[in-house]
Amino acid sequence: MDENFEKLGNHSRQPPLFDGDNFPYWKVRMVAFIQVILGDEAWESIKNGYSHPTKPFAKGSTIKVKKNLSEFTKEEKQESLSNNKGKNCIFMSVNEQEFKRISLCNTSKEAWDTLVSAHKGDERVKAENTQMLVQQYNTLMMDESESFDGFYIKLTTILESGC
What we know:
Distance between the termini: 43 Å
Radius of gyration: 24 Å
Helix content: 55-70%
Number of domains: 1
Oligomer: single chain
Strand content: under 5%
Low-confidence stretches: 4-10
């Protein structure tokens, strides 16, 4: 068992599940999970990306080809492992619909960026809706002929729209 896990007490090794709702909440929890359970190296791989190690095609050639795993240096193996841990963690933390969105991604960064990009609109739409609700609230007035119950219904409709 990982020595860092021992220090965590009863914390789960199960990543938080993203079911397609509330991406910002999941994202913050996922970053923390990756940093604590997988380590900073995995988070750095997700954040900064990973490039498969290459070698010259032939002696003196400027053409590069991918190295086989057996040709990796110790550092290259560690970088590859960090990328694979991050990618696996992301794959294991999403529902089937979100998995279909990222299943063809080759790196952890590509999977992460795909999710961020797909759900970036969530935050923009939420901000626009909030602005609209604030404007409705600020212009809300009770008509002279309106009953308190009628006004209360208008007020609660605005408040419930924000939930």
